[in-house]
Amino acid sequence: MIPDAPRSGGASATGKVLRKSMIDVLRHRAYRHLFAAQVVALTGTGLTTVALGLLAYDLAGDRAGIVLGTALTIKMLAYVFLSPVAAALTEGLDRRKVLVSLDLVRAATALCLPFVTEVWQVYSLIFVLQAASAGFTPAFQATIPVLLPEEDEYTKALSLSRLAYDIESLASPALAAALLGLVTFDALFVGTCLGFVGSALLVLTVALPRDPTPERRSIWARTTRGLRLYLDDRNLRGLMALNVAVAMPGAMVLVNTVLLVKAELGGSDRNVALALGAFGGGSMLIALLLPRLLTRRNDRTVMLAGGALMAGAGLVLALAGLSPPWGWPALLATWTVIGAGYSMALTPSGRLLRRSSGSPSDLPALFAAQFALSHACWLVAYPLAGWLATTAAPETALAALSFLGACGVVSADRFWTDRKRRPDP
Fold this sequence. Notes:
The structure is a single chain. This protein is mainly α. The protein folds into 2 domains: 25-211, Growth Hormone, Chain: A; 220-420, MFS general substrate transporter like domains (Growth Hormone, Chain: A, Up-down Bundle), CATH 1.20.1250. It has helices at 11-21, 29-60, 64-89, 95-112, 119-147, 151-180, 186-204, 219-232, 234-264, 269-293, 299-320, 327-346, 349-356, 363-391, 394-417. α10 (269-293) packs parallel to α12 (327-346). Mean pLDDT is 84; it is low at 3-19 and 418-425.
């Protein structure tokens, strides 16, 4: 049986690092408002994650898992296939109007979810919601490097964004639990709607740079432009391989933690939350340290080391096993290391995309390509993790996914290593 894990200390030291490393970037008014918009929208999205599971159970009972799994698949398909299309359709448009419009579409869709009575209605609304997100997120991400042209400041913004995602993954379920003590789960969708409306209002308060008038191209050329720019660059092909390296062990954590904790270790629901919290905690710690680390090491070194940490930690745990009494602390330690590697491998990717762009007008297309390709890796990794853990053993799934992650790291290293004639980013 798993013992309760103690609370980790060092909050004051962490806060000191945070203040010294990242808070100063919030002095920029435009970025400060956009970051606040991101936090508000993330909070609303987190409430939807909880409410959607409850809605699926309310509509489908014992088949709720199938409904929720299908909804998540629809989400990933929208991300993979619609983000390049959205980037093409919005090329040259006023970026602020685009972001506000997509936020309002998301808000209206979330407000419809409490009134659904059929499963197909859930699928339809989730498709609309995620289609809007597939347009919003890359456009939002591509705006930040234009607002913060100094690399040090942009690095701090990337770390702050990573930290916001990690905190949201911990805070939103707690907020939802508190609200559910006062209201029914349907009301959580209203909270989601308010989050997107708040995001839209905050975006309206800033003046965003206008993109130059785009060249006349066909819709197909504009849709595939980001992918062509991405795949023509050896560094970005390395990033694509690193997306595989991150998705494979990452999917093991997100899909099979509950199985490892409850079936293999005999733990409780609280232990599942603690294990996932260890993953998030490792990611948060590295997000705090990355701005300083990236002044001493180049992106390639840090990102490859992150992918190698994820694969190596998973392989070590798979070989060592989860036998008591060390199974529980070994799982916590491994998930913390994998979370740290996750942040190291992914957070600097924005810097790589910015360096690889020929001009600021390329950024939306490149960010949309990275958004689509990275989610394509997760679209493969999620069902693979579930299938391996079900048909084989969880340790076998962990070993296989970690090995595939290691292959991704080796491939990424080969792409980057072959560019010796040019300075390493």
